[in-house]
Amino acid sequence: MASVVPFSQRERGDVICLFDVDGTLTPARRTASPEMLDLLKQVRQKAVIGFVGGSDLAKITEQLAVHGQNITDDFDFCFAENGLTAIRLGKELESQSFIKWLGEEKYKKLVRFILHYIADLDIPIKRGTFIEFRNGMINVSPIGRNASVNERNEFEAYDKEHKVRAKLVELLKKEFADYGLTYSIGGQISFDVFPHSWDKTYALKFVERENFKEIHFFGDKTYQGGNDYEIYEDPRTIGHAVTKPEDTMAELRKLFNL
Ligand code: M1P
């Protein structure tokens, strides 16, 4: 990996800024703008930076490593799947797995229930990949993850009115009450399912060890039920609620006099 200035030699090396990805560094599921990437470089010269995304590392890489570079070259900390995939200065940190935690039998029951439910669901269109199996979670999408950008936008609007995801989440909470699972609607077409406390605060355990004086977190879904809520509210972080990437940039310029 490219040579990196040690944290201790940065002007504010005792400060870390952690960023949600969709809606905070980039528009939902899109790539980061050149202005954002440039500003992040400037911030990194002064402080320590990292992202904490719900998506897997491959998807976040598509969004943030827009010149085909290695994502770990541009961020000191990379936390994908809420930190279940964790990388510090290019080196992978320990991780856990959803399937090991839940067990195959319970997992099969959950998948069977969800797929039956989605099969019977009458929504305007369906595409493919209704459950995506990840290391630290599963991601469930009633329309399917193969939806195009237009189809995503249409589903999001439809879901606002018809609450397709919220209804399924409520049902799963009742049906699998003993599973100890959290359901988080973080994006446009899907929701994430993971064990209680494997929300974005999971990533903080890796950051805490470094004894930063300030841990700033920037996110757009900081309201209760949003997937940034827990880390934004956590007493260990200084929360910044933003509504779009331009907001994040304005906050960063203020914070670091850029
Ligand atoms: O980062 C927020 C969410 O982004 C995607 O959601 P969707 O495809 O519904 O827009 C998913 O990767 C999801 O896991 C993630 O939480």
Automatic annotation (TrEMBL):
A GO molecular-function descriptor: phosphomannomutase activity
What does UniProt give as GO cellular component? cytosol
Localization per record? Cytoplasm
Q: Which SUPFAM superfamilies match?
A: HAD-like
Task: Give the reactions, separated by semicolons, that this protein catalyses.
Answer: alpha-D-mannose 1-phosphate = D-mannose 6-phosphate
Q: Name one Pfam family in it.
A: PMM
Active-site residues (renumbered): D20, D22
Sum up the protein's function in the record's words. Answer: Involved in the synthesis of the GDP-mannose and dolichol-phosphate-mannose required for a number of critical mannosyl transfer reactions.
Name of the molecule in the record = Phosphomannomutase
Which species is listed as the source?
Answer: Rhodotorula mucilaginosa
